[in-house]
Amino acid sequence: MIGRLTGRLLAKQPPALLIDVSGVGYELEAPMSTFYGLPAVGETVTLHTHLTIREDAHLLFGFASATEKALFRDLIRVSGVGPKMALAVLSGGSVDQFWETVRAGDVARLTKVPGVGRKTAERLIVEMRDRAGAVGEPTQLTSGVQPIGSPLDEARHALAALGYRNAEIQKLTDSVYKDGMSTEQIIQEALRRAVR
After folding, report:
1. Per-residue pLDDT for the chain (196 aa), expressed as one digit of tens each?
2. 123 and 173 in a common domain
3. CA distances from 113 to 59, 122, 177 (A)
4. I need a surface site. Which of 16, 36, 52, 54 has the fewest CB within 10 A?
């Protein structure tokens, strides 16, 4: 099992990362909460990881904190919640915000996450409520994303990778974008607006 990686960050295009660990390039997927705290490309990064083995692929997921990783593992144990949906849930807010939502039984807030319908949201709340005493670690937004296109294009690509539809992406990014915003700022503001 691969539980943690430390290496040089070669590329980051949400939700995908490439990390060089002693000459081996590891491809990972990470939630936006992890992306906000990543250093610049070329710098050293340490991530907690979870490896999922399927018939057709070995998938590696990276997290900024052990609490994000623990929540991801809890989420994928819930019937009907796969890794992609778990990443979307983590991308929608902090670990603490998720547990507050569960404790409050706020189904409406969970249904704003792409791919989470009412039944899945209800199941998440019922199955996760007994673990809702967990305490998360806040992550912080830092600069350093190296966008392939403009910050707006990069943000739209990231939102699409998280499962948002084109019409939703257009509406969200148009409502929050201002000249000079970084990719991370656009994504963060769009996700905040999406869960309101």
Report:
1. 788 999 999 999 888 999 999 999 999 999 998 988 899 999 999 999 999 988 888 899 999 998 899 899 989 988 888 999 999 999 888 888 888 888 888 888 888 888 888 898 888 888 887 766 433 333 333 333 333 457 887 888 788 777 787 778 888 888 898 888 888 888 888 888 887 6
2. no
3. 22, 13, 20
4. 54
> What is the signed CA dihedral for 19, 169, 151, 32, rounded to 10 degrees?
-30
Q: Which helix (H) or strand (E) holds 36?
A: none
Domain residues for 81? 74-131
Taking each helix axis from N to C terminus, what angle separates 66-76 and 118-128, rounded to the nearest 10 degrees?
120
From residue 117, how far is each of 33, 76, 99, 100, 183 by CA, in Å?
A: 22, 16, 18, 19, 28
Number of structural domains in the chain: 3
